[in-house]
């Protein structure tokens, strides 16, 4: 490179300096340009892959210097602008003469292959030319803020070659993708390279998005739309799901192989929409829940991707509900057809129903924790389905009563249902889960405690295994809190302690009186409060009847009110006994008036004329309605619970609207039962009368707490 | 019989005697009128006396105007008027004779019916019926009578239906103050007979919820 030497000599050395500072020869534009053209022609030959053609470093330097000189002269010999304008012309020339014709004559894959090659060539060409024309980048281009040589060079290709063919190219590419989808092998590298052109040429991916992705996604949508419609008609649900999963996986891999990573999200969205979202209803219609865990899991996986679990859980809920309700219906039908001697007694039939319900729950719970990955939507669906099923009465019994009876039968010694220890525990676990579905849980607890259940099991020593009893109680305590289980725990403790004492007593007797005591004594100590009240009367004439008849020893005629006063039974019980003595088969008492109902104005007279052929007669005392008693007790407890809840709420809030108070009360108590809104209103009015609350004078629908 | 807790008549007479002669004359006549009906022994007008009083006024003693007069008096015990109570009302009404008193009745009715007073009167009517035994509630038949008397004129259709219902239902045997006030609010606020703006989710007393339910059932 000829270097310019700065003149430092004084005027004396003017000549020498002048000689030294040899003014290089000014290159005229056309003169210089001619040199450049030679270089470009050589470049073309290199690109054409001619053997043995290359630039020596001298040639390279010469070209560089030519440009350099032309750009560093002072005006009017500074040809920067002209050179900048002529630079792209070189490219354009080459493109129109060589590149375009070569592409034009090709089709399909060959076309894009050609394009790929030409683009590679073009990049090389631009690189070389940029080196030759480099000096423009140093001064001229920055000063004028013009596009760089590379950019200008690339734009030539874009404007003349790419834009002219991009639509065709896109069509070819999407066509090849579809072929691959159909299972053919395609040249992935080629596609990657071609798509890279879009990326490289488009500013900020604009070219790629607008000229490729849009068409590609549409093509994908069309493809899967057709495919899915065909599959839906032909395939079973599991088959469809499998295919969908397979194809979706392939799309994901496709991105890795030749698409830009930014396309993945939209691509998956489109494919999933066509395959799954659009056909959800039809797919779910075909869904069968017959034990194909794998299929259900797949379904869950796929639908969770499109956020479409709601319809799936809905179908699941309907399925569970249907099965549960059919069990209910079966049980109801069976109960009607069987001979109903003892309507109140829960029989084998009802226990069988409970067992089937337990099985149904276990099976579907396994689906929820397994295939449905414990998703809360499915827990909810299961719960809602069972809440409905458990709200139905079977053979006149609520599910609360049935579950309590079932527990009784598996816990009692010699019960109808015999199970292994492990099975007992599993059953109890499931029962506890089912109790959460019952609205009026407090009913279950009362039944479990009383009527033929825990109390009797303990008293009559029919407890199969105390461990199980305790285990059940602790499960109940864990899930529902202490308030209901504390009484029952107390009952168990009483019996255990009693047994202990009994043993000590027997040991004592043996020690002191030998093995022949006069009286066989066994005692059971019960703490009141734990135990319900019982009347254990097993004698032929029930206690109350005898007591009532004994009253007639003192007087032949007695009025209803006299009997009630002297006997000190409840009205209900008195009516029962009187009815059995005066209105039933054997009229031991005469009643005035002699109709068949007992009223408070009746008068009774001992029937001295009573005879019968038989010596021994049995006067039936129909058992008191234990079930009714349970329900009454529960209602009384509920009143107290509501009162306590209301006072608690008002104490903390000081002032509340009616609506909020009721809503909060219902919520607080919902763990145990669903309070009747009318009952709540009644209790509120009662609390107003008892001056716990008052109506707010300023707000007509609000209450204030009275401290 | 509840003993009046008021001060003795003579001391009050001295305390309330006006400065002018006219006023003191009026007071004298009012007092005299009182004593024509009062029972010697108790110093109060008792039920018999009230009957006589009413017959002179030519108004039945079950008439609402007598109740209004009692309100004006601030009378504490049903069936009895004390001298203080008597004075309070007659002075305010500027009536010292039967004829004058009769003439003031329209004015008295107007005064009671004024919205600012009516609520007070309505509340008073309930309390007036409470007795030693029943300190917080009045029995259904009494409540029905009272409703008729006090609200009948203004709200005839509602009152008739309500009375029918109260007699028909058996859940409640007595009415308390809260329910009593509820009746008044009901008549004032609820469209009748459409009942379209009644919402049982609000804090209406339960007895009214049941009443509305009964009305709606019996409409069809």
Automatic annotation (TrEMBL), chain A:
Q: Which GO terms describe its biological process?
A: ubiquitin-dependent protein catabolic process
**GO molecular function: any one?**
ubiquitin protein ligase binding
On the tree of life, the source organism's domain of life is Eukaryota
- Keyword Cell division (UniProt): no
The record's annotation in Gene3D superfamilies points to:
Cullin Repeats (1.20.1310.10), Cullin, Chain C, Domain 2 (3.30.230.130), Winged helix-like DNA-binding domain superfamily/Winged helix DNA-binding domain (1.10.10.10)
Q: Which part of the chain is the Cullin family profile domain?
A: 398-554
Q: Which family does it belong to?
A: Belongs to the cullin family.
> Sorted alphabetically, which keywords does the UniProt record give?
Ubl conjugation
Q: Where is the composition biased (Low complexity)?
A: 1-21
InterPro entries cross-referenced by the UniProt entry: Cullin, Cullin-like_AB, Cullin_CS, Cullin_homology, Cullin_homology_sf, Cullin_N, Cullin_neddylation_domain, Cullin_repeat-like_dom_sf
Q: Which Pfam families match?
A: Cullin, Cullin_AB, Cullin_Nedd8
What protein am I looking at? Cullin family profile domain-containing protein
**Cellular component terms per the entry's GO annotation:** cullin-RING ubiquitin ligase complex
Q: What is the lineage of its organism?
A: Eukaryota, Viridiplantae, Streptophyta, Embryophyta, Tracheophyta
Signal peptide range equals none
Disordered: region residues: 1-22
TrEMBL record, chain B:
List where Low complexity composition bias occurs: 7-22
Q: Which residues form a coiled coil?
A: none
Q: Which SUPFAM superfamilies match?
A: EF-hand (SSF47473)
The record's annotation in Pfam families points to: Cullin_binding
Q: Name one GO cellular component term.
A: ubiquitin ligase complex
Q: Where is the DCUN1 domain?
A: 25-216
Family matches, as PANTHER family: DEFECTIVE IN CULLIN NEDDYLATION PROTEIN (PTHR12281:SF12), RP42 RELATED (PTHR12281)
Q: Which InterPro entries match?
A: DCN-prot, DCN1-like_PONY, EF-hand-dom_pair, PONY_dom
Record-level Gene Ontology MF annotations: cullin family protein binding; ubiquitin conjugating enzyme binding; ubiquitin-like protein binding
The segment annotated Disordered runs over 1-24
Listed name of the protein: Defective in cullin neddylation protein
What is the species of this protein?
A: Eragrostis curvula
**Gene Ontology terms describing biological process:** protein neddylation
State what this protein does.
Answer: Neddylation of cullins play an essential role in the regulation of SCF-type complexes activity.
